[in-house]
């Protein structure tokens, strides 16, 4: 089969690799019809993780079931399914509590928790930017889709990661009807957080970024765009909230946060959130931070640390939630919102391309080139 193979920093190639297959009785084999490039792939693509060369990416996957192991009860050949990016067993201590983001079985390292397809430090699982995908614990991990699966693939594929992840940010931030909320980052995840805040009834959603195309998308769903290359985003939020600060906020950027000129400042978004959110407000951080970042420019960041404004955070009595999103906690309900026509996460999609076009797509998406807001790959044909 063909797959988008990682060759080293900023280099991927579409190559022949061994076919994915059913290896255990509980596996499901999926012919991948739709798979996205994610901002999380870019940390790996840029060589800022220890992702191994020769492996392939792809954790936002959807497709058609073409084979099931003997131990699979529910999922059937022919089903259209979307897979949470978290690989999870369903029966460990964490999965039982709904914390499939920290599965203890799918992660082979006993000192770690959580697994994902085609991801650094998240277990051995192959990615889905390929023609075929092996889905372990298939009954637990497959979310089945209805007859509109193909027609609305660009919506449903967002259930693999970014729609539930954006929703999780708003859940950790406690966004409730009437709230005024601020989101740092208008990448795909930030835009999904903005959509989720709207679904949850926020009265005002403010989105901070500096890319006009991404900010326009935020405005297209009724959010207020704040361009931090033009204004101080903290002051802009205070102005929008009678000087009190937002009720809650979401971090959707991660450790490669930078100033508008491109200089990395891994503490920028967290500290601006502390300043932008009111006393006692909540912050949900889904942007990725890592325990080691050897490629960082300063000593703190190399050790996974940031100069966090703990004093102001404590003084304001704020709360903070963080980590990988437990996709399975939300994907079914969000699927039903899509099916009912009440959510259309595909508004962020700028490109639907073949697998062969992936190397070029990686370059453009990585450069955050104007108009490259979300890339959907179609291994079975566009
Ligand atoms: N927790 C999870 O489960 C989960 C899931 C998916 C993605 N992620 C992470 O979420 C983050 C965002 O993902 P994405 O796909 O949207 O990525 P992206 O890189 O496309 O978007 C990030 C956006 O943040 C903006 N930005 C950078 N510095 C900023 C700053 N100081 N202030 C405001 N905006 C700033 C960039 O201009 C960009 O538009 C990444 O770290 C990704 O790894 C986490
Ligand atoms: Zn992703
Ligand atoms: Zn588990």
Automatic annotation (TrEMBL):
Where would I find the Alcohol dehydrogenase-like N-terminal domain in this sequence?
26-138
Coiled-coil features, chain-numbered ranges: none
Cite the GO molecular-function annotations of the record. oxidoreductase activity; zinc ion binding
Q: Does the keyword Metal-binding apply?
A: yes
- State its cofactor: Zn(2+)
Spell out the family assignment given in the record's similarity comment: Belongs to the zinc-containing alcohol dehydrogenase family.
Q: What is this protein called?
A: Glutathione-independent formaldehyde dehydrogenase
Q: Which domain of life is it from?
A: Bacteria
User: What are the entry keywords?
Assistant: Metal-binding, NAD, Oxidoreductase, Zinc
Q: Where is the Alcohol dehydrogenase-like C-terminal domain?
A: 188-291
What InterPro entries is this protein classified in?
ADH-like_C, ADH-like_N, ADH_Zn_CS, GroES-like_sf, NAD(P)-bd_dom_sf
Pfam assignment, any one: ADH_N
């Amino acid at each position: 089969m063909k797959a988008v193979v990682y060759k080293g920093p900023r280099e991927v190639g579409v190559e022949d690799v061994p076919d994915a297959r059913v290896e255990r009785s509980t596996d499901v084999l999926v012919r991948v019809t739709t798979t996205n490039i994610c901002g999380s792939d870019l940390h790996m693509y840029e060589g800022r993780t220890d992702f191994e060369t020769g492996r392939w990416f792809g954790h936002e996957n959807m497709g058609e079931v073409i084979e099931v192991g003997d131990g699979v009860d529910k999922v059937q050949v022919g089903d259209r399914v979307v897979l949470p990016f978290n690989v999870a067993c369903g029966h460990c201590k964490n999965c039982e509590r709904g914390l499939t983001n920290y599965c203890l079985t799918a992660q082979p390292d006993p000192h770690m928790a959580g697994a994902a397809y085609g991801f650094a430090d998240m277990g051995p699982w192959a990615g889905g930017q390929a023609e075929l995908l092996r889905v372990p614990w298939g009954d637990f991990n497959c979310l089945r889709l209805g007859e509109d699966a193909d027609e609305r693939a660009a919506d449903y594929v967002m259930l693999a990661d970014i729609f539930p992840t954006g929703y999780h940010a708003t859940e950790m931030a406690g966004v409730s009807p009437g709230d005024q909320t601020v989101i740092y980052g208008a990448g795909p995840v930030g835009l999904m957080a903005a959509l989720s805040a709207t679904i949850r009834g926020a009265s005002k959603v403010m989105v901070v970024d500096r890319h006009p195309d991404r900010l326009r998308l935020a405005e297209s769903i009724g959010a207020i765009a704040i361009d931090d290359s033009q204004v101080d985003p903290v002051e802009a939020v205070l102005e929008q909230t009678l000087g009190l600060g937002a009720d809650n906020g979401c971090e959707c950027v991660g450790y490669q946060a930078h100033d508008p000129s491109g200089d990395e400042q891994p503490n920028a978004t967290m500290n601006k959130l502390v300043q932008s959110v009111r006393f006692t407000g909540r912050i949900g951080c889904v942007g990725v931070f890592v325990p080691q970042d050897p490629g960082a420019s300063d000593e703190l960041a190399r050790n996974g640390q940031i100069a966090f404004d703990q004093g102001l955070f404590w003084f304001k009595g704020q709360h903070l939630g963080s980590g990988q999103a437990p996709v399975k906690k939300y994907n079914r309900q969000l699927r039903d919102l899509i099916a009912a026509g009440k959510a259309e996460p595909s508004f962020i999609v700028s490109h639907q391309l073949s697998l062969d076009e992936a190397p070029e797509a990686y370059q453009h998406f990585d450069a955050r080139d104007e108009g490259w807001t979300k890339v959907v790959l179609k291994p079975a044909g566009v």
